Amino acid sequence: MKKLLLSAVVFCTVAVHAQSDKFSGAMQKTLEMMGNAKAPADYVAAAAAFERIGDAEKTQWQPYYYAGLSLSTMGWMDQSLDKDANAEKIKVLCDKAAAVAPDNSAKSEIETVRNMAATQQMMVDPQSRWQTYGAEAGAALQKGMELDPKNPRIYYLQGMSLFNTPEQFGGGKDKAKPLLAKAVEFYGTAQPKAFYPDWGKKEAEEQLALCN
């Protein structure tokens, strides 16, 4: 997951005719800011800009989603960060996004960010936090799958979790492989939508290759 969040560049490459020119311009500019970010402060700035767009538009879920994704990315980079405070901020952004999400596809995407927030909290001390935040992270992915069974990012994150879990605890390459294969399959059939998430395909393919 860390590799994904540090390498993902989230640029929108599809037509945005259905969106207002003002919203589209602000989103494209801020997505580029996020894509070009290199330091934790850059991601914090991008998150703040996305949140301002969301507060101004009030009916768009993507700004809050990307604000949460930016803070998630920053959370893996800054080892001195208060992970709990950062995660709680991300969860608030997810709540705001979910409140105006137009369909189950959008709601499923939001659950991937909830998963990342809980995972970062768990990784502070996996042994003592697994039952709380590990369960929360898993529940987010389960809900995301129920909302949209063809969301490739759900399977990618599940596969990565199992890949990084020791075999004696139920993980390993053999357990991760079918999930990563399903992620790659659904990445191949996904239809682009304006400003919807589009990250993870390359990383899923690379991770799947490591399972062979």
Textual characterization of the structure:
The structure is a single chain. With about 210 residues, the protein is mainly alpha-helical. The protein folds into two domains: about 1-5 and about 20-150, Serine Threonine Protein Phosphatase 5, Tetratricopeptide repeat, CATH 1.25.40; about 150-210, no CATH class. Helices cover about 70% and strands about 0% of the residues. It has ten helices and no strands. The longest helix is centred in the middle third of the chain and has 22 residues, at about 125-145. Residues about 1-20 have low confidence and may be disordered.
Instruction: Quickly count the helices.
Output: 10
> How much of the polypeptide forms β-strand, as a percent range?
under 5%
| Low-confidence region ranges | 1-18
Which geometry do the CA atoms define? globular
Number of DSSP strand runs: 0
Structural class: mainly alpha
CATH architecture of the largest domain: Alpha Horseshoe
Distance between the termini: 19 Å
Mean pLDDT: 90
Estimated radius of gyration: 16 Å
Instruction: Characterize the biggest β-sheet.
Output: none
Number of domains: 2
| Fold-level CATH name of the largest domain | Serine Threonine Protein Phosphatase 5, Tetratricopeptide repeat
Secondary structure: helix percent: over 70%
| CATH top level assignment of the largest domain | Mainly Alpha
Helix-strand string:
HHHHHHHHHH
